[in-house]
Amino acid sequence: MRLPVNSPYQITTPYGWVKDYPLHRDPNDPIIPASERAKYPGAGYGFHTGIDYVPADGKTIATHSGSLSTGNDAINGNYSIVNDSKFRTYIAHQSIFSVRSGTVEEGQQLGVMGETGAAKGAHVHHSLRVDGALVNPALYVNNESEEIMPTEQDVKYVFQVVTGSAPTAQNIAFYTARPWSRLNSWAMTKLAQNYEAQLAAGTTKDSVIKYLSEHLT
Length: 217
Ligand SMILES: [Zn+2]
Hints:
Elements: E1 9-13, E2 16-19, H1 34-37, E3 45-48, E4 51-55, E5 59-61, E6 66-73, E7 77-83, E8 87-97, E9 102-104, E10 109-113, E11 124-130, E12 133-135, H2 152-163, H3 169-176, H4 180-193, H5 195-200, H6 205-214
Antiparallel strand pairs: 1-4, 2-3, 4-11, 5-10, 6-7, 6-9, 7-8, 8-10, 8-11, 11-12
Helix pairs in contact: 2-4, 4-6
């Protein structure tokens, strides 16, 4: 499965519990995966059901092939759903559709990023269900078309910033063999999980996004 956007891009909101996220949900909300409900960090956190991207070219891309349906509602704006026998990708807030129905192939353009629905600022929201269950898309996206690979120094820097400690040799081997998008998604997920601790340590999400985005161009 590939990313729902082309590079370069920024991730503006990760999957999972996000401080001051506008869509606050009860931790018992069934839309939140059971594995995530127990991790509720406390008051003021909302559960973000996908990953938000801002791609430079503004295009939304089919992450996998399948049957396409499109629609519009007050929350998600112009949304596209691509279904196959296992994966169900959901793309929200588009300004226009490139295609409205039928079969789409992985990598095909679905539309153009926008701020329709309840979006604040133009971005691409991507949610993913696997066998019906909501999951973190970062665990499934393996963007083979992304050619930018992190160096060992990049991996060391990002681990130090995000976790406060050095990566293991295994971590370095894993991430230097995979595109930046994988390290980027990992870092954003990690930051969301440890938001308060990161703030106490002086790390801000913006500082990491800035570093990551500078290395994606
Ligand atoms: Zn979103």
